[in-house]
Design goal:
The chain is 51% helix and 13% strand. By secondary structure, it is α/β, with parallel strands linked by helices. InterPro entries: CheY-like_superfamily (IPR011006), NreC/VraR/RcsB-like_REC (IPR058245), Sig_transdc_resp-reg_C-effctor (IPR016032), Sig_transdc_resp-reg_receiver (IPR001789), Tscrpt_reg_LuxR_C (IPR000792), WalR-like (IPR039420).
């Protein structure tokens, strides 16, 4: 069973998400929180597989809660909930370790799929088109940053990182590069290890901030 905690200050949102998730045979909601502080306490107490975390809440908001969870080294996958698909708070939360974000008006079946993907560490990004647009929006006007660890990546690993940033799954990357999917999985694992990243979402952020996602640097 996939265990889920829901954190949102609106009772109707929480009850709606609970209804959607508990209609699935492999998902159970183990707790609800009305603010970030409650969410952090619940995660520590029950260790759910996935936390649905609202960005904007009174008191301790979603961003502060994400920072606390990251500092505590939680293994719970965090999906940020937002009403807006371009929200800098979500981008900052992704940098802190969130596994992705969901729009509150997404179809219920898409939310269920996202929760399953997060719980099982699926190779595809959550809401990839929105994630790419979000990251691109908030890195396009910023100077590119240097990541010394990029020098440890091979040319093929750089190619894989660039395709990860485009939201491609392992199967899609394999087809694009004409290599086996098992080989792609190995490259992805090495990219994450060499860059010290938790998952593919953080890899996307690094790819955009360093300019890898936009192609080679200008001489």
């Amino acid at each position: 069973m996939i265990t889920v905690t829901i954190a949102d200050d609106q009772p109707l949102v929480r009850s709606g998400l609970r209804m959607i998730l508990e209609g699935e045979p492999d998902v159970v909601v183990t707790g609800e929180a009305a603010d970030g502080a409650e969410a952090v306490a619940l995660v520590a107490a029950t260790r759910p597989d996935v936390l649905l975390l609202d960005v904007q809440m009174p008191g301790v908001d979603g961003l502060d809660a994400m920072a606390r969870l990251a500092a505590a080294g939680t293994t719970t996958r965090v999906l940020m909930l937002t009403t807006f698909d371009l929200d800098e708070y979500v981008y900052r939360a992704m940098r802190a370790g969130a596994s992705g974000f969901l729009l509150k008006d997404m179809p219920g079946e898409d939310i269920v799929v996202a929760v399953r993907q997060a719980a099982h560490g699926a190779d595809a990004l959550l809401a990839p088109a929105l994630t790419r647009r979000l990251v691109d929006r908030f890195t396009s006007d910023r100077p590119r940053t240097d990541a010394p660890a990029l020098d440890r990546l091979t040319a093929r690993e750089i190619d894989v990182l660039r395709l990860i940033a485009r939201g491609m799954s392992n199967a899609e990357i394999a087809a694009e590069l004409f290599i086996g999917e098992t080989t792609v999985k190995t490259h992805v694992a090495r990219v994450l290890m060499k860059l010290g990243l938790r998952d593919r979402v953080q890899a996307v952020v690094v790819a955009y901030e360093t300019g890898v996602a936009r192609g080679p640097r200008e001489p």
